[in-house]
Design a protein that fits this description.
Layout lengths: L4 H13 L12 E2 H12 L14 H9 L10 E2 L1 H13 L5 H15 L11 H33 L10 H32 L4
Antiparallel strand pairs: 1-2
InterPro entries: DUF1836
Pfam family, one: DUF1836
Protein name: DUF1836 domain-containing protein
Length: 202
């Protein structure tokens, strides 16, 4: 199969269709078992490798709380904010260390712990909606720009498809390298921002 914009768009659509949206989160507080069931129903399709493992466990929730990434539950029940934060933790830890996730969460968690200050920072619902919109845009921006960028890469390395019987595999390999290079650049820029603007405030 040739790698084209439409092929990548199919991959993007598949990943986005099952994303946990704010509207999917119950308004009433949930026990840990209910929280993990909801999150795993949405996040497990992103797991690679060990198909028996799960995205979120009760032990993870306890560890995140103990390590300051999550505010404590209310009588063992978790609200919408807890579930949004757990989804964000899952996504962010694919790219950032948990220490960096904790660092950028600190101002949010402080705000959630002081309801009287909630007007001073964007609502968590809105932060999460913005994240999902960023994610959607990045997926489709990558698809839209793919063919032009891929052709430029091929030109720089003197057309890697000449005289090869494995053109399809070479193309797929270079596509993976291109996507990883983009992800690495974005990850390192995010880490620099965290070090410069968030850790300096601690």
């Amino acid at each position: 199969m040739e790698i084209t914009k439409s092929v990548l768009e199919d991959f993007a659509t598949k990943l986005l269709d099952n994303e946990l949206k704010v509207e999917d989160i119950p308004s009433i507080k949930q026990y840990a078992d209910q929280v993990t069931e909801l999150l795993n129903s949405k996040l497990n399709h992103r797991r690679k490798g060990d198909e028996t493992s799960v995205a979120i466990t009760k032990a993870m929730i306890n560890n995140y709380t103990k390590n300051g990434l999550l505010n404590p539950s209310d009588k063992k029940k978790y609200d919408k904010n807890h579930i949004i934060l757990l989804s964000l933790i899952y996504h962010l830890k694919q790219v950032l260390s948990l220490d960096d996730v904790k660092t950028i969460f600190n101002p949010i968690l402080r705000n959630l712990g002081h309801p009287e200050e909630k007007t001073s920072i964007i609502a968590l619902d809105d932060i999460y909606r913005a994240f999902l919109e960023f994610q959607k845009e990045e997926y489709f921006d990558a698809c839209n720009d793919y063919e032009d960028r891929f052709n430029r890469v091929c030109q720089k390395i003197n057309n890697p498809f000449e005289n090869t019987a494995n053109k399809g595999m070479v193309e797929k390999f270079l596509t993976v390298l291109l996507l990883v290079a983009e992800a690495t650049a974005a990850k390192q820029l995010a880490e620099e921002m965290i070090d410069t603007y968030f850790k300096a405030q601690d």
